[in-house]
Design brief:
Elements (H helix, E strand, L loop, with lengths): L30 E5 L2 H6 L10 E5 L26 H11 L9 H15 L9 H14 L17 H12 L6 H21 L9 H28 L5 H10 L1 H16 L1 H6 L1 E4 L5 E5 H17 L1 H15 L3 H5 L4 H21 L5 E5 L5 H6 L4 E5 L3
Helix pairs in contact: 3-4, 5-6, 5-14, 6-7, 6-9, 7-9, 9-11, 9-12, 12-14
């Protein structure tokens, strides 16, 4: 499950998965291209100019014909404010938008080229902020920011919900056997491991052995906890069959949450040993910090504990209520489709909520880092890519 498309698309990456150039944008804010032909210049009250001449023109708030949702474009930065939870929530809704899965190769190339034109100051006339933000959204969803390679569709963040929902449904199926429990936990951790690897911080090379180590650790921990809890529930004589069935439905949560922590720590253990890059206010790399790496892994691990809560806790509660209704009692074949819809809704809500808990590019005081890093910059704070 590890193949990744080899096609490359050049250009600087966006912040969607934490580009290194997150804060290195040097283009002037609030500027856009405008065709300055004679009629256009006269209409604006400006001097007549040569037809087809292109100029940079400041764009005032009053003169904006675009929706307020589309502020002046900034290359490599998010469209929504990242200091608030709501801003991060809206940002990650953009990142996981499944519509980007249907973007064609030609449309991707157009988006990348548009961002390159913006970067080099060669935009064609009439390009709007909305078009630039849309182009960056497409690139962020498909292209890895560090490797500039196309991410294999099932392992993109925008594909996490569509490809992960069938697995969640399988995890929550009632009356699981030992074989089915092992299968669904293995499949879930395999998918998680591949998503982790595809969206990793690739500023530094990581050996394949680390990926295999993290993958095996996550699978073994998830299967062991799930099977162990199921055995304990089966042997609990105090529970009625109905209570036993209800408890079994909640078994996947502790198994998945524990395995998610194991997965993150093992797969990103190299970051703890070597550190991760921290950047100053100008986007320059100050150094590699192991302390920043610890903060990044802790924030990511907390996210991975919160993420399965709504997905694996809400559906069992909702389904235990719905299964008592006359509709599902008289139509038992509808239970699986209804459960699938409930899981999809819970997944769609849980993912953006969980990954919005912390900013993608987290900030830390320089004084809290290693002395050599504090001495290497005058900035009071630096930022680092937390990773997803």
């Amino acid at each position: 499950m590890l193949p990744r498309a080899a096609a490359k698309a050049g250009g600087s990456g966006g912040e969607g998965r934490g580009e290194r150039n997150y804060i290195s944008h040097r283009a002037s804010r609030g500027l856009r291209w405008a065709a300055a032909n004679q009629s256009g210049a006269a209409a604006r009250g400006g001097p007549g100019g040569g037809g087809g001449c292109l100029k940079w023109r400041p764009q005032s708030a009053k003169g904006m014909a675009e929706p307020a949702d589309y502020p002046p474009f900034q290359l490599g930065k998010p469209r929504f404010e990242q200091t608030s939870f709501y801003g991060r929530f809206r940002h990650f809704l953009d990142i996981i938008d499944p519509r980007t899965l249907f973007v064609t190769e030609s449309r991707l190339k157009e988006a990348v080229q548009l961002l390159e034109d913006y970067k080099h100051g060669t935009l064609p006339p009439g390009v709007t902020n909305k078009e630039l933000w849309a182009a960056q959204k497409i690139k962020q969803a498909i292209i890895h920011p560090d490797t500039n390679e196309t991410i294999f569709m099932p392992f993109r963040m925008s594909g996490y919900i569509p490809f992960g929902t069938p697995i969640v449904v399988g995890l929550l199926l009632p009356n699981q056997t030992l074989a089915s429990t092992v299968f669904w936990q293995w499949l879930n951790q395999s998918h998680n491991a591949c998503v982790n690897y595809a969206n990793r911080n690739a500023t530094k090379p990581s050996p394949t052995s680390k990926f295999i180590q993290g993958y095996l650790g996550a699978v073994i921990s998830a299967v062991s906890i799930a099977v162990g809890l199921n055995v304990l529930v089966q042997r609990a004589n105090k529970f009625t069959p109905a209570t036993r069935l209800l408890i079994q439905r909640f078994v996947p949560f502790p198994a998945v949450a524990s395995a998610n922590i194991c997965n993150v720590v093992l797969m990103r253990h190299t970051e703890l040993e070597e550190g991760i890059d921290v950047l100053d206010s100008n986007g320059n790399i100050v150094g590699s910090s192991r302390i920043a790496a610890k903060h990044a892994l802790l924030e990511t691990a907390l996210t991975r504990v919160v993420l399965p809560m709504p997905i694996l806790v809400l559906p069992p509660i909702i389904m235990s209520i719905l299964e008592k209704t006359s509709l599902l009692r008289s139509r038992p074949r509808m239970i699986l489709p209804v459960q699938s819809l409930v899981c999809l809704a819970a997944f769609g809500l849980a993912l953006p909520l969980a990954i919005s808990l912390f900013p993608q590019m987290s900030e830390i005081e320089t004084a809290r880092l290693e002395p050599e890093i504090a001495m290497a910059t005058a900035s009071k704070t630096v930022v680092y890519n937390k990773g997803l």
